[in-house]
Amino acid sequence: MEEVQAKKKLFSAVQPSGAVTIGNYIGAIRNFVALQDEYDCLYAVADLHAITVRQEPAALRRNTLSLMALFIACGVDPEKCVLFVQSHVPAHCELTWVLNTITYPGELSRMTQFKDKSAKHADNVNMGLMDYPVLMVSDILLYQAALVPIGADQKQHLELTRDLAIRFNNRYGATFTVPEGYFPKGSSARIMSLADPARKMSKSDENPNGFVTMDDDKDTVLRKFKRAVTDSEAEVRYDPVNKPGVSNLLTIYTAFTGKSTEEAEREFAGKGYGDFKLAVGETVADALAPVREEKARLLADKGYLNAVMKRGEEAAARIARRTLSKVYRKVGFYTGD
Ligand code: TRP
After folding, report:
1. pLDDT in tens, 130-171
2. Helix crossing, 127-142 with 302-331: angle to 10°?
3. What's the pLDDT tens digit per position in 286-315?
4. How many Å lie between the centroid of ligand 1 and the Cα of residue 324?
5. Is residue 39 within 6 Å of ligand 1 at its C-beta?
């Protein structure tokens, strides 16, 4: 008889640290939706990670709810996925403690992201910032995730996840699934700043014209695209080295329309940059409008969002508890039996 194959488990998370840009949407949230039918998906709002840099408490609370609403508004379906808030499931911290005891300080101090963030937040280089990758390892290993969709900047953290899973399994016996990174087609597209296409689009850009957020209204979106930096040629052609601005706009356009780069180039052949930027702006604005409306509707229904989070917490905690009990037994904690 044919065996029914269980779907592979997939885990990912996003930090609730403020505005979500279209870069975050294209690189992460959009794929969460595309993957939810094929895999058993767990998606978390990583608030424990967020506090490794200073957060204003009221803003963190607001951003957590807002990110939860955005996930759902973008199409992440709480009926299909386990959607939850990281701090609601204590096992993340509990497993982090155990894994800390098999992690070497050198592994953490040489992480690129730790070095970057330490430089950026020189007044607040705390142990949590250094331990951030171990918390991320725990997120993934608790759910025995086989696949982890991540951006390029998280690759080192995924390597550590694999290293620690193998190290623990070797020391204490088979316990954890060793996960793989997952890079869905098109997700490697790095979305660059509209104001400086040499830099990644970031919500912390001091120039607000550099980034477009999921909350921007039509006028704002159009204005930002109108000001987007291009070049002195007048040819819409994909060439990231010589034409980074235009290429970035093409990447955004194809991400939102599903068209190929060649199709897009053909569409704008012979047209000026003004028309091109307007078309990209309108495409993005029209795509964001229904998401923004749905998000507002959800945020007005806190009871529903709370219920989704509660359900997610319970489902996540059930799986996490199972892994954590196994870990506690393996390391020799007395469990009474
Ligand atoms: N560190 C990730 C980021 O900032 C977010 C994250 C936390 C995550 N835990 C995770 C991503 C587990 C994948 C798996 O992008």
Report:
1. 999 999 999 999 999 999 999 888 999 999 999 999 999 999
2. 90
3. 999 999 999 999 999 999 999 999 999 999
4. 20
5. no
> Each residue of 76-101: pLDDT tens digit?
999 999 999 999 999 999 999 999 99
Q: Which two tokens stand for residue 276?
A: 């091109």
The pair of three-digit structure tokens given for residue 306, joined into one six-digit string:
């709370």
How remote is the C-alpha of 209 from its chain's centroid?
22
Instruction: Say if strands 82-85 and 9-14 run parallel, antiparallel, or are unpaired.
Output: unpaired
Angle, CA 134 vertex, CA 82 and CA 92 arms, to 5°: 40
Ligand 1 atom nearest 151 alpha carbon: 15
How remote is the CA of residue 14 from the centroid of ligand 1, in Å?
6
Instruction: Give residue-wise pLDDT tens across range 3-36.
Output: 567 899 999 999 999 999 999 999 899 999 999 9
How many other CB atoms sit within 10 Å of the CB of residue 171? 11
- Give Cα separations from 85 to 46, 67, 68, 180 (angstroms): 7, 10, 8, 23
Q: Ligand 1 center to residue 13 CA distance, Å?
A: 5
How far is 248 from 207, CA to CA, in rounded Å?
17
Read off φ and ψ for residue 64, nearest 5 degrees.
-65, -50
Distance CA 298, CA 66 (A): 9
Q: Is 117 a catalytic residue?
A: yes
What is the number of other CB atoms lying within 10 angstroms of the CB of residue 8? 18
Q: And the tokens for 150?
A: 């991540």
Q: Is the CB of 92 under 6 A from ligand 1?
A: no
- What is the phi/psi pair of residue 319, to 5°? -70, -45
332: number of Cβ within 10 Å: 8
> Rounded CA gap, 103 and 114, in Å?
15
Q: What is the DSSP letter of 226?
A: H
> In 10 A of CB 141, how many CB atoms?
25
Residue 90: which residues within 8 A CB-CB, separation 6 or more?
Answer: none
The partner residues of 149 in beta bridges, in order of sequence, read 182
